[in-house]
Design goal:
CATH superfamily of chain A: Alkaline Phosphatase, subunit A
Strand content of chain A: 5-15%
Distance between the termini of chain A: 36 Å
Structural class of chain A: alpha/beta
Number of strands of chain A: 18
Strand content of chain B: 5-15%
CATH architecture of chain A: 3-Layer(aba) Sandwich
Chains: A alpha/beta (459), B alpha+beta (826), C mainly beta (96)
Largest sheet of chain A: 8 strands, mixed
Largest interface: A-B, 81 and 100 residues
Structural class of chain B: alpha+beta
Helix content of chain A: 25-40%
Strand order of the largest sheet of chain B: 2-9-8-5
CATH topology of chain A: Alkaline Phosphatase, subunit A
Shape of chain B: globular
Largest sheet of chain B: 4 strands, mixed
Helix content of chain B: 25-40%
Radius of gyration of chain B: 31 Å
Radius of gyration of chain A: 23 Å
Number of domains of chain A: 1
Oligomer: heterotrimer
Chain lengths: 459, 826, 96
């Protein structure tokens, strides 16, 4: 009866008229959530049918040194090349660090981008902004996290929120810029990511606002819900966009709190021990496993922040400063690389075996790279002029190396790629037609999801 | 966000009510007309060999319904050697002379006189007036294609043909001129790509034989001439019919005529780009055929080159038994609303009850719901004019000033993220005292726009300190005080209004004398303490398209204005803005203030006034605007007129005739309370305060001075950060994260169980269950429970064991605070 | 939040000639896994054990070789080296 799909979208570029239903009617700028929900309630559209692939964003907070991981330079001088050696992988010409042997076996599944750079300052938060949103805005007006963009444009597919961040928000990284990259910004707080706020590696983790508060028995929760339905029914009036949106929100919240499927989604004990071991019994591995369960249950975008800080924690921020940032190549070898290797390869394999990898972009990102020259203490420091990240899954072709750094890994030697292009590639990898899908930007002005061209070689 | 074309919703609501509209779609047999066939235009004068003209044919039935017969009529020319006509009614000139076209439809016949006056030889094909419109029609220069700022596949056209010189060069010079093949025009890359014969990501944009292909081919065959110096200018476009009243299932062909600087008129229907403001309701196709699909109303926008014309469409059901309601005269709002509703065969809902009215008007005027004592006193009052008295008393309350200072604080973006703390506080106090003293909004705007110095001598100067640059200032000024969004026109002609870059930079020239400097008395670390300074010697703003200085130009005026050198150009702007005859200021403010008392503006969104976004009730808006100007831009007078109207005081309950209507104010539509008001009401109902870091203790949410307050609860509920001058930054939408917090978070659970809070205090008073229930109802939803509600609530208490009475009461309060009755202003 | 590691990792290993073969690690923390080789009671080396399930030590000197699986245990940022290797399997030995 209703062809929202033909609704014109007013944009700076004029009116575009295409079938949007296939990519999510909620994406229609000018068609707001209440309108959309009202139409949904009228049976006119079904948000859950919006066809777009999923994304799991693995954010390696702290920034791995590219020369120690995915862009080794065995022929560079010793104070540049570091102690690790490259190994061959399943993809010819795509060599990676010897401490990533499991990842090496899966090199046909992902493609490296070795010529990434950003022009912001060399602090973590600037990198979070660039890589999570595609924009560097420092303390200026923020841009939305990619998960919020997808949530805004494509809506909620199941009882679970469309964008979830595991296990928590990146907080203290020496600046407050990164926190500003993890919101829905001008898209509205409704599209903020849902933060798990708990460690899934713990056998009995609780999620705020999903688990009953102290003193709240099941009896009371049920009694309240029943009474609310009864009292609202007495006052039943003609519905309108706002009340329908409200009812939908409450229905979703109740089902999230009470539905057994919700509990199940977060319950890793449902997984076989061997599967949990495959991912690794640690925060990151459990988060990766949880991300697969969430994607299976209708979450569109899962972000895993490998760490929520860089201070006083063994993380990728390898300054070797002897203080609160005392991470070294030994930590890489013993702890970080094996942990990542295992979780990443388990995730790709598991998704693939379940037929989900072609439906899910897996983007492994970091704020920046690390200095080519090893510092006086054996560490490497912040370095945004050149680094390597990688993409897999969805429509993205694997087994390739995009761009290259120079002989010392200091600058992109060929095909420099900036963060907006990575975001554009992720969106296109999810099946989004960037020329056709718009979202309401600042002041509700319709804008493209990202103003950049995807990397064509990856498709 | 308020920013929604609610027109779409009419359908959704109709569907919710179970109305089936599908039955109306069947085609009717040959209609019976009451009068003669009507023609648009009534006669044709054709002067250009390549410019045929269409004619619209219509007739009126006995019950007053207008039918479009253009597609059903038959056409024949008296002399095909002078003018030929096709089966769609397009008349093509052949040779100079006079003839006529006979048109037959619905058993009637009419004659269209045609005069043909062709020049001796065919004029050369015009790049500007024939080729560029073909690109627009083909969609080649739209934003998703070659009009994208980065172009596509190395080929960039100016967005919707904004820059003819650049486009001419792109076509004829770039790519070694290989886009055009002058030897074999048909083989030109431009045509092969456009036809989809050669790989083209944009697909086929034209077909052999259509106007786009014909025009481009003829142009290349003629040697691809340019006519960049052609003096002929497009002056205006006009779409016919201007107003369509149709029933579901009817169609209407549109006609778009272009008027040129030499007085000539051209039928550009085939080159026009049509769009509907509510495609689900009333779609329009590429050829300009409007289909009335569902009940409701909207506008169809026809664009040719960069100009627009709008046709308003109303889709009405078949006449039902309807007696027109008497049109009230005492309140001008009721007069115009009722008149429109009569046109639509809608009877408005009844007036709401006293308790409902009092809560509604408290929330809207002073931002807090009434206490039980206030409601009870009001209900006990037997005076006939008690609603008037109650409203007048509210204007005098300090909360009134707080509430509207908050609103203006949003619009003027007062925030310590951009201002020093003293400047932010001083600005807030200035706004608040302007509201408290009921400063006329013309004076308010003048003071803001001509302010200078710092917070100590002129707190209003913070207005300029908030801006990041002149662009920001001009965009804020136009959006807040004219309701016009100019951002698009910075980089290209505005896509929905006739604004160009000359208009944009003409506005910038009023404000580019303004800059700021660090306050010399400030603390070295305080980088935000600044003073507004004026450089009266500053030249005009640079138009980035022409690279020439653009003299000041008022919005909507045809030409530049001349100001004496060294003059503060803001004075001229402020004078123009606040003059009674200004077409934007009073109208946009009237509409904006209206929207704070209803679920939408008469024009909506309220800060997106443009010819392509027409008001739902223009006479209402005009009359209210006139009244606002006559009362010296007195906001309180306008608010008083609104809240004392029957239109404002309607019940939320629909009747038999108005369930589908959401555009014409025939009933009240519940609105979720805005963040600050909701939190303050929550605090008042539960007796448990909320603290706001960054504000003095005891401040209510409505009193918060700026956008930079760290309250997760308020931001979750949609409090804006004041990053935009747009109403859309505030969100009053419900969403799941809020619902989760209200259901299972601490905001409500802690408040209902807090010792010393409302529930605890009531339970200590040795009241019966029924008394506790009644008190909780008064505090939460400002009324006594109905019998049914009391019954349910008592049953709820019974489910708990006696020792769990506290829990039962807490859970009832939790429930009341989660009902729509509480969360919405009804 | 710092990393959480629950459970005690464990693996069984066995010999086939001089080749040592490991089973999957249960409660696997997924940190560095390595073979630790001792010769006549003295540690003579380690070898990575993640990529493959088997390993053959190249040492040919006469004497007894003892092999055990080790896993890195992250103990916390304040701890020296942030942790240590712990043995997680049975020991096997052979004599040359």
């Amino acid at each position: 009866m209703l062809h929202i799909g033909n609704a014109p979208i007013p944009t700076c570029g004029g009116l575009t008229r295409r079938s949007f239903l296939q990519v999510g009617a909620a994406g229609l700028a000018g068609l707001n959530l209440p309108d959309f929900l009202a139409m949904k309630a009228a049976g006119a559209v079904d948000e859950s049918k919006a066809e777009v692939k999923n994304c799991i964003m693995l954010f390696l907070v702290g920034s791995p040194g590219h020369l120690d991981t995915w862009d080794l330079k065995p022929n560079a001088p010793a104070d540049i090349r570091g102690p690790f050696k490259p190994i061959k992988t399943k993809a010819p010409g795509l060599d990676i660090c010897e401490h990533l042997p499991l990842m090496a076996k899966l090199a046909d599944k992902y493609s490296l981008i070795r010529s990434l750079f950003h022009t912001g300052s060399a602090v973590h938060g600037a990198g979070h902004q660039w890589m999570m949103t595609g924009h560097g805005f420092n303390n200026g007006d923020p841009h939305p996290h990619a998960g919020s963009v997808i949530a805004r444009v494509f809506g909620q597919k199941s009882a679970l929120p469309p964008s979830i961040i595991l296990p928590g928000k990146v907080g203290a990284v020496g600046d407050n810029l990164g926190e500003r990259a993890q919101t829905a910004a001008y898209l509205g707080t409704a599209y903020n990511p849902f933060f798990l706020g708990a460690d899934p590696a713990k056998s009995d983790f609780k999620i705020a606002n999903l688990s009953p508060q102290a003193g709240q028995t099941e009896f009371r929760i049920n009694a309240r819900r029943k009474l609310l339905a009864e009292l609202d029914a007495i006052q039943q009036q003609v519905e309108n966009a706002s009340t329908v949106a409200h009812d939908t929100a409450y229905q979703r919240a109740f089902s999230l709190i009470t539905a057994p499927e919700t509990k199940k989604a977060f319950d890793l004990s449902e997984e076989k021990d061997s599967v949990r071991d495959r991912y690794g019994r640690n925060t990151f591995g459990a988060s990766c496993l949880l991300s697969r369960r969430l994607i299976e249950r209708g979450v569109r975008f899962v972000t895993i922040n490998h760490f929520d800080t860089v201070f006083s924690i063994a993380c990728w921020d390898m300054h070797a400063d002897g203080g609160s940032l005392n991470n070294t190549v030994q930590d890489y070898e013993r702890h970080l690389l094996p942990q990542f290797d295992q979780a990443y390869s388990a995730l790709l394999t598991d998704l693939d075996e379940r037929g989900l990898l072609k439906e899910t972009v897996v983007a492994t990102l970091s704020e920046m790279g690390r200095t080519p020259r090893i510092n006086g203490k054996g560490g490497r420091d912040h370095y945004p002029p050149c680094w390597t990240n990688f993409l897999a899954g969805g429509n993205i072709k694997g087994g390739q190396v995009i761009g290259a750094s120079d002989k010392n890994g200091a600058v992109p030697h060929e095909y420099p790629i900036d963060p907006p292009r990575v975001l554009a590639t992720i969106y296109q990898g999810m099946g989004v037609d960037l020329d056709q899908v718009m979202m309401p930007g600042p002041g509700s002005r319709p804008i493209r999801l990202i103003d950049a061209e995807p990397i064509p070689e990856l498709f | 966000m308020k920013d929604s074309p609610l027109a779409c919703l009419t359908l959704a609501c109709a569907a919710l009510l179970g109305l089936s509209l599908a039955a109306a779609h069947a085609q009717t047999p040959e209609p019976v007309l009451a009068g003669d066939l009507r023609l648009q235009p009534a006669a044709l004068n054709l002067i250009h060999p390549r410019q045929p003209h269409s004619v619209l044919v219509s007739g009126v039935t006995a019950d007053g319904q207008t039918l479009d017969l253009t597609g059903n009529a038959s056409y024949s020319s008296a002399d095909e050697k002078i003018a030929a006509v096709d089966s769609f009614g397009w008349v093509r000139p052949v040779a100079s002379g006079k003839t006529s076209i006979t048109i037959k439809a619905a058993g009637k016949s009419v004659t269209l006189p045609v005069t043909v006056e062709l020049p001796a030889s065919a004029p050369p094909i015009s790049f500007r007036h024939e080729v560029m419109p073909a690109f627009s029609k083909g969609g080649c220069n739209m934003g998703a294609c070659h009009g994208y700022s980065l172009g596509k596949n190395g080929f960039k056209l100016s967005l919707r043909g904004g820059d003819e010189a650049a486009d001419y060069e792109a076509l004829t010079q770039e790519f070694q001129g290989r886009r055009l093949n002058r030897h074999r025009p048909e083989a030109s890359l431009l045509l092969r790509k456009g036809l989809g014969e050669s790989a083209h990501r944009g697909g086929a944009r034209m077909e052999v034989g259509d106007v786009v292909h014909d025009t481009l081919l003829a142009w290349i065959r003629a040697g691809a001439p340019g006519d960049l110096k052609n003096k002929l200018e497009l002056v205006s476009v006009k779409v016919y019919p201007e107003k369509i009243v149709a029933r579901p299932g009817q169609q209407q062909q549109l006609q778009l005529l272009a008027h040129y600087s030499d007085g000539s008129v051209r039928d550009v229907t085939k080159f026009a780009v049509f769009s509907s403001n509510a495609d689900a309701l009333v779609p329009v196709d590429e050829a300009g055929v409007v289909s009335a699909r569902e009940l409701g109303e909207t506008a169809i926008v026809a664009r040719y080159e960069r100009l627009f014309s709008v046709s308003n469409v109303v889709v009405l059901s078949k006449p039902v038994e309807f007696t027109a309601n008497a049109v009230p005269t005492e309140n001008l709002i009721d007069k115009y609303v009722t008149a429109k509703l009569n046109d639509l065969s809608i009877t408005p809902s009844d007036l709401c009850g006293d308790a409902e009215f009092l809560r509604r008007v408290y929330i809207d005027l002073i931002g807090i719901q009434p206490t039980p004592a206030e409601v009870k006193a009001f209900m006990a009052d037997t005076a006939a004019d008690k609603r008037v008295k109650a409203v007048d008393a509210l204007f005098a309350r300090p909360e009134f000033a707080d509430h509207w200072a908050l609103k203006w604080g949003d619009l003027l973006q007062n925030s310590r993220s951009r201002l020093s703390e003293p400047a932010m506080w001083a600005f807030r106090e200035w706004i608040r005292s302007s509201v408290a003293s009921n400063m006329g909004l013309d004076e308010f705007a003048r003071r803001l726009l001509t302010s200078k110095g710092g917070p100590r001598d002129d707190p209003a100067a913070a207005f300029f300190l908030v801006s990041t640059d002149t662009n920001d200032t001009l965009q804020r000024v136009t959006q807040v005080f004219c309701g016009v969004r100019m951002l698009c026109a910075k980089c290209h002609a505005h896509p929905f209004e006739n604004w160009t870059q000359a208009d944009y930079f003409g506005l910038a020239s009023f404000f580019n004398q303004v800059s700021s400097k660090p306050d010399p008395t400030r603390d070295a670390k305080d980088t935000k303490s600044k003073l507004v300074t004026l450089n009266l010697a500053a030249g005009n703003a640079l138009n980035t398209r022409t690279n020439a200085a653009q003299p000041p130009r008022f919005l909507g005026s045809a030409g530049d204005i001349k100001l004496a050198a060294g003059e503060d150009r803001r004075e001229a702007y402020a004078k123009w803005l606040t003059a009674p005859e200004n077409p934007f200021f009073a109208k946009s403010l009237t509409n904006r203030i209206w929207s704070y008392f209803f679920h939408r503006g008469i024009i909506d969104p309220v800060d997106d006034l443009r010819s392509t976004n027409p008001p739902t009730n223009p006479v209402l808006l005009d009359a209210l605007t006139k009244d606002f100007i006559e009362h010296k831009f007195d906001a309180r007078h306008l608010m008083r007129t609104i809240v004392l109207s029957q239109t404002y005081q309607r019940s939320t309950r629909a009747n038999r005739t108005n369930g589908h209507d959401t555009l014409n104010f025939s009933r009240a539509i519940p609105r979720r309370m805005k963040a600050e008001v909701l939190v303050d009401c929550l605090v008042q109902a539960t007796g448990v305060a909320e603290s706001f870091p960054g504000a003095p203790g005891g401040f209510r949410a409505v009193q918060l001075p700026d956008g930079n307050v760290q309250s997760p609860l308020l931001s979750m509920l949609g409090k804006p950060m004041r990053l935009e001058a747009c109403e859309c930054e505030r969100s009053d939408e419900s969403n799941m994260l809020q619902a989760l917090e209200f259901i299972n978070g601490k905001s409500i659970l802690d408040r209902v169980s807090r010792p010393g809070g409302r529930v605890d205090t009531l339970l200590k008073q040795k009241l019966t269950d029924a008394q506790v229930i009644e008190e909780l109802y008064w505090w939460a939803v400002c009324r006594a429970p109905s019998e049914k509600e009391m019954e349910k609530a008592l049953a709820h208490f019974k489910e708990y064991e006696a020792k769990q009475r506290t829990e039962a009461a807490q859970d009832l309060m939790w429930t009341l605070l989660n009902t729509k009755d509480f969360l919405f202003n009804r | 939040m710092d990393q959480v590691f629950e459970g005690t990792p464990k693996a069984d290993i066995r010999l086939e000639g001089r080749k040592v073969i490991r089973g999957e690690v249960s409660n696997d923390w997924a940190s560095r896994l390595q073979w630790k080789i001792s010769h006549n009671g003295k540690v003579v080396g380690t070898a990575p054990a993640r990529a493959d399930l088997d390993y053959e030590h190249p040492g040919t000197e006469a004497g007894t070789y003892e092999i055990v699986l080790e896993l890195w245990k992250y103990e916390g940022f304040k701890v020296k080296d942030h942790g240590k290797f712990v043995e997680i399997s049975n020991k096997v030995n052979y004599t040359v």
